[in-house]
Amino acid sequence: MERLLDIRNLKVWYSTYRGFAKVVDGINMHVGKGEKVGLVGESGCGKTTTMKSILRVLDSRKVHIPEGEIIFKGSDILRMNYNEIQQVRRRSISMISQEPSAALNPVFTVGDQIMEVIRHSGQFDKNFSKKDMKSLAIKAIRDVLISDPERIFDSYPHQLSGGMKQRICIVMALVTPRELLIADEPGTALDVTIQDQIHRLLRSLVEEKHMSLIMITHSLGVARELVDRIYVMYAGNIVEAAKTKDLFKNPLHPYTRGLMDCVPRLSGGGVSEGIYGYIPDYINPTPGCRFYPRCPDAKEVCSRQKPPATVATENHLVACFKYN
Question: What is the tens place of the pLDDT at every residue in 239-293?
């Protein structure tokens, strides 16, 4: 499969009063054209930082990227000038925030905000009138299963429910043609039934528009339903990567197995287990495997050396000395 996005040895550090917090520590991942990929891990492991690096929306005064490449369609995003990265944001890559209330401007109507996205996309000629923009916006609102798009178009964000606001964020991400959609836990702020509707809607729209998708989530269950391939991330490192069915059939890394053990058992199997300990201090992390202090299979070498990614089986990578 032809690669649309290729992240190579990316490192992202945050500047703090104690020194640099090394939040992303040399990750490698890729997304093929039309592929749906999941990035899974507990809160604070660097998922959102990685994705914001793709669009270069991190605060450059506080963030340092000492190493790495983000290759999108043959060009390194990290070396693009301002105009080039603006074109990528407007025409090629869009992102859905995990908090719709923060993503929408409370002083403008939903319609105004959607039309602003259309206007600045640069994908329509001068003959594309304001009336045409409104028609496109209302069609996009209808596409996300909202039955009265005209009323929603004229509404302010505070007049909408959480599920409605998340749908509008999806509209803004997909109203103009894009090649890659980054969805940052789009169901986090919603109740379970609405979450399922949003996730299924997102998958159907991505498939219909022949787009690639990166789904960021802390839930393996969500990833299992939505994506073709999964990257498991822990404390700034990719610890395992495999096709979805292979990962669930044969999880290899102790962290992946720990995440699966955390899933509540509703069939009489007892109380779900947690993962002992806490994520490491990013300012002074262990020189070896960052999962070492919490790992039930840890060896002495794990505290000294960072395990390389090993091909365990075809298309199944794991970073663990147990398989090296």
Answer: 999 999 999 999 999 999 999 887 766 665 566 667 888 888 999 988 899 999 9
Torsion of CA 214, 99, 55, 30, to 10 degrees: -20
What are 214's two structure tokens?
């990166």
On whether residue 303 sits in a domain, the answer given is no
Residues in the chain: 324
Contact 292/277 with Cβ under 8 angstroms?
Answer: no
Q: How far apart are the first and last CA of the chain?
A: 27
Q: Which uninterrupted H or E stretch holds 246?
A: helix 244-249
Domain total in the chain? 1
**Strand order across the beta sheet in which 212-217 lies:** 93-96, 180-184, 212-217, 36-40, 229-234, 237-243, 316-318, 310-313
Task: Provide φ and ψ at 89, rounded to 5°.
Answer: -65, -35
Domain that holds residue 29: 3-240
